[in-house]
Amino acid sequence: MAPQQTNSKPSDDAKEQPAPLVYQRAMPMSRGKLAIWLFLSTEIMFFTALIGTYIVLRFGAPEGSWPTPAQVGVMEWLGAINTFVLICSSVTIVFAYESAKSDRIRAARGWLLVTTLLAFGFLGVKGIEYASKYSHGLYPQSPRSLLHDRSDVYYLSHFSLQLKQRIAELEDQKTPTDHHDPATLETLYLIQSGMLNWTENKVGVSNDPNMKRLALESFAHQIHPLADRPDIDKYLADERADLEEQQQTIAPQFSDLESKLEAAQKQISQLSDSIAKLESNRKSKPNVNGDFPPPTEIEQKNKAQLEDAEKTAKDATESISLLKQQMNPIERRLEAQSRFNQFEDGINEHFHLKLPMVIPNGNTWANTYFMLTGFHALHVVIGIFVFLILLPLELDRKRAKVMENVGLYWHFVDIVWIFLFPMIYLF
Amino acid sequence: MESTGNHNPKRQRTVFLTVFGFLVLLTGLSFWVANSWIMEDRMIGWAVMLGISACKAMLVIAFFMHLWWESSWKYALTIPALFMGSMLVLLLVPDIGMRTDHYPKTRERLSPQAVTVPEATGNVSSSQDRTKS
Amino acid sequence: MVNKVQHPELNHPKRTGHPVLRFLSTYVFATDHKIIGLQFLFSSLFWFAVGGMLAMAIRWQLAFPWSDMPIFGPTLFASEGGQIPGTFYNMLFTMHATIMIFFVIIPILSGAFGNYLIPLMIGAEDMAFPRLNMFSYWFMWPAFACMILSFTLPGFGPTSGWTAYPTLSLIAGDAQNLWILGLIFVGISSMMGSINYMTTILQMRAPGMHMFRMPMTVWAMFITAILQAFALPVLTAALFMQLSDRLLATGFFAPESIVVNNSITISGGGEPLLWQHLFWFYSHPAVYIMILPAMGMVSDILSCFARKPLFGYRPMIYSLIAIAGLGFVVWGHHMFVSGMNRILAISFMVSTMLIALPSGIKVFNWLGTLWGGRLFLTTPMLFSIGFVSMFIIGGLSGIVMAAPPVDIQIHDTYFIVAHFHYVLFGASVLGVMGAIYYWYPKMFGRKMNETMGKLHFILTFIFLNGTFFPMHFLGARGFPRRYADAYRFEEFQDLLPLNQFITLCAFLMGAAQLVFLINFFGSLIWGPKADRNPWHANTLEWSAPSPPPHGNFDFQPTVYRGPYEYSHPERSVDYWPQTEPPP
Ligand code: HEM
Ligand SMILES: [Cu+2]
């Protein structure tokens, strides 16, 4: 933009100029203004490509699958405020131009200053929005964004990857520094064992596609709920009841085994005591050759009993650890359920975790949202640059032309936003 | 030349302020539409909101960008771009805008398939160790 | 041609005092449109050589598959015994096309000749925005740097074809990023250029130079600039999206749940077809960007050397406009096999067929210009006649492919390659060559050697047809393009001899360009000095000094008539410069 305006006057590097040539023109306006209008037509095509991409991707999303503003934390009123800010700035830059045209330099500068401030205000609001998207993990990133279109195994394995990373990070830093973050290592472990591994297991073991789907969906729902899902609530409640029942049946077996083990251990200690006694007895009286007398019958019997008892103990321990292996996930699952089920806003939101979440079309939403608002914000930034260059200058009748061109550009930026506002915030 | 019209500045100013008022009003209107019964059919709601935006854009172009007071070159500079832009978007509709109409069942979102990849079940045993916290 | 003509420039008050610029401001920080035009010309010629080398490498692989490739083999793949890997072949055709299109044809047509000729032909002292013009050349350099750098990355460059279709381009190596960046820079450069050209043509015509007294060259440049201004931003937007797909994993062009190499790399949710639409929305108009200026220049050359007014000046202009307008709604003919909507495909077929009408009008008007003319078969004239004949062949094969049932058969075969080389090499490059021979005296103040020029034409013309005509047969047999080794399929094995013949012709055609190089650079030193108007042409640039000084004209040009008043019955000489006052 800048070179076009600065160049509309004859170049000043050569003092001695031949007589300027005479031209006829097709359009009743300065070259700079024509160039700006042409530039704006190319900008129309640029934004048409971007907005067109958004429209057709949005249009093609199946009914109801595009994230609602609430689901992705888009605040309509912020968009409305920004619309208002830009409309105001359009008016103020018109006033700046009109003042410059009638040689009211101070007024022109004042209006331009107001415009600049409004532009900064717009960027500020944009910044607030972007920050909230960032803090929720709703943005494209490499190698893969946190947003998944559906709860499938790719989602699970991505989740597991991210969770492991998060855990490793926390394990590395001994003292959690981020006081903002109430999620402790404990919580992450619980998510890992009580939810992730549980679901992985379920999906791996179950043969019923419907069960697999429900397991995956309920997992995604607990991480980041999108809407009320009575079917999932019911599924979780059923599962819980089922698990509690299993726990109930396993618990007596467990105590049985434990008492068995205790008895065996008691026996072992008794037997080994008596064996030791008998042996030392025997060894205290060697015969002539220096050999010890052979073990007595009692000793041999004791030894056999000891072996038996040891075997029993070993078996019991094994069964116990087997049972524990069975019990542990169930316990963890129940713990996870009782801990996490109460969060209406989901685990991710509650603990500020930024773990992968399922939002159908969430990616496409994030991509287009950042592409549209990003390129628009870029234009605002360029506008601000130009304003800052103009502000210290004498904005008099001679500069009015430049002011007019800059104004045209700024109005275009406003017009783009006029279309973006309903499309991003209200559709 | 710079034909911004020979209106006196006072009247110019009232014109600009009136336009400003309309712009604010129309913004409010589209906000209302978004939360009203019109959005029950989303296509109609979108069309209405885009129409309102088009009106706002027209106001800005006509008055703030002075096209109202310009001679006929304004058509030469704006119509081709608008025509080609709308051509681009319109011709994208059958292929991209209606793309999900022809998706096979397997690509439907939230469909019950998409399970059993060895990866996931493989992870189970390896990550189980961590449960001993 | 009779020599007696009034010299209008001598009757006008002299315009003197053209500043003499120092070296740096003349050649580096050049804002003079002529210097910028020459900068574009020389860098395009350089890239023409690079692109040509790549083409030779492609032909080597097709003629002698997997054998030790000269130059590239021993330097890059010595450990493999000089045998190139398949991906290297992909790089070759990708970079050949990219360089030829974005670094040769487009810059040489609108960058070099557009810059050089527009102000001279309309009687302006420079472009409307000289410094913007300088930037438009400077922005080519980051693009050059990107391309050169990409050669050094693993794989020796991008490998996704010049069309860069996702999802292939999304999983390609890092060189693809540089490719995208390079094209974005070229786009910015062309944008600046096109806005400058449009403003200059609209606002800086000499008194009397109405729009309908402008030479066809200027009209063609004007329409080309409009095409660039409206089509390029779409490509730029699409390139930004592809770049963010690659760097930020956004997935505008990646389908959902796409799994690459068993790892999750792309977020997806988009549509690969979208890229094809956006890309061809630019790239079909781009093929006209690559030929309209040549059409304009050829019109001027034909009329000059037939010593006849251009047949149907206004219809020529209207058909240019029609081609440009229709050119925006035919892009789908590149996508007939992409799985696009069938009804949409039919509408694209109809609009494509329609575009043959204005193209046909142009061809008939050129023939009408030649008809009954007093033909001077100078080198520029030969190249221009070559242009017309090659364009007829290329255009006809285009119409054939415009029908989806036919295109489904021959899409991505050598038939397509034959088509676009007939229009791009046969037409555009011959047109450019003609233009170089024609305007060389104006650019450098010396004439090129006619004998060598004619030799250059004849050799190029013969070997160009030897190279590209047999490709029609290859394509009709289904020989696929972009395959490093199609002979793997038994049914193509018997095509190897034909391919070897093509390669031979291609090498000879490449060698023929040496004649041009020697002529071009030799004439800079030894060429006979040229006066203002060596061809006795009418247009404004010929009444300026050769080469024109900074500021172009040493008098105030005023235009009294159209550009094609050759052999006017009431005049004793067979030309009538636009600036000559009426008697
Ligand atoms: C009579 C006018 C023309 C018609 C009807 C026409 C038609 C076509 C069609 C249908 C295709 C697609 C073939 C396929 O990929 O299956 C095609 C490809 C192509 N045409 Fe033309 N064409 C015309 C003129 C031109 C001109 C003037 C140029 C360039 C100066 C050109 C350059 C190309 C190029 C480069 C391709 C191949 C693109 C690629 O796939 O890499 N065409 N043309
Ligand atoms: Cu095409």
Note the topology.
The complex is a heterotrimer of chains A (427), B (133) and C (583).
Chain A: H1 2-6, H2 31-60, H3 76-101, H4 105-135, E1 147-148, H5 153-172, H6 185-205, H7 209-223, H8 230-283, H9 297-340, H10 346-351, E2 357-358, H11 362-390, H12 400-426
Parallel strand pairs in A: 1-2
Helix pairs in contact in A: 2-11, 2-12, 3-4, 3-12, 4-11, 5-6, 6-7, 6-9, 7-8, 8-9, 11-12
Chain B: H1 9-34, H2 42-64, H3 73-97, H4 118-128
Helix pairs in contact in B: 1-2
Chain C: H1 8-11, H2 23-28, H3 33-63, H4 72-76, H5 86-122, H6 130-138, H7 140-151, H8 175-203, H9 216-247, H10 272-289, H11 292-305, H12 313-327, H13 342-370, H14 379-401, H15 404-410, H16 414-444, H17 450-476, H18 496-526
Describe the protein:
The complex is a heterotrimer of chains A (427), B (133) and C (583). Chain A is mostly helical and 427 residues long. Chain A has 12 helices and 2 strands, in the order H-H-H-H-E-H-H-H-H-H-H-E-H-H. Chain A has a two-stranded parallel ribbon with strand order 1-2. In chain A, helix 2 runs parallel beside helix 12 (400-426). The longest helix of chain A is centred in the middle third of the chain and has 54 residues, at 230-283. Chain C is an all-alpha fold and 583 residues long. Chain C has one domain (8-543): Cytochrome C Oxidase, Chain A (Up-down Bundle). Chain C has 18 helices and no strands. Chain C is globular. Mean pLDDT of chain C is 91; it is low at 1-6. Classes of the chains: A mainly alpha (427), B mainly alpha (133), C mainly alpha (583). Chain B binds chain C through residues 80-81, 84, 87-88, 91-92, 94-96, 98-99, 107, 114, and chain C through 226, 230, 234, 255-257, 271, 273-274, 277, 281, 328-329, 332, 340-341, 343-344. Copper (II) ion is lined by residues 284, 287, 333-334 of chain C.
Structural class of chain A: mainly alpha
The SSE order of chain B reads: HHHH
State the total count of DSSP E strands of chain B: 0
Structural class of chain B: mainly alpha
Provide the helix percentage of chain B: 55-70%
- The value of Rg of chain B in angstroms is 27 Å
Which regions of chain B have little confidence, pLDDT < 50, spanning 5+ residues? 1-5, 109-133
Q: What compounds are bound to the protein?
A: protoporphyrin IX containing FE, copper (II) ion
Largest interface chains and counts: A-B, 86 and 70 residues
Estimated radius of gyration of chain A: 38 Å
Terminal Cα separation of chain B, in Å?
81 Å
Share of helical residues of chain A:
over 70%
H-E string of chain A: HHHHEHHHHHHEHH
Describe the global form of chain B: flat
Number of contiguous helices of chain A: 12
Strand order of the largest sheet of chain A: 1-2
- Per DSSP E runs of 2 or more residues, the count of β-strands of chain A stands at 2
Fraction in beta strands of chain A: under 5%
Largest sheet of chain B: none
Gross geometry of chain A: elongated
What is the mean pLDDT of chain B?
Answer: 73
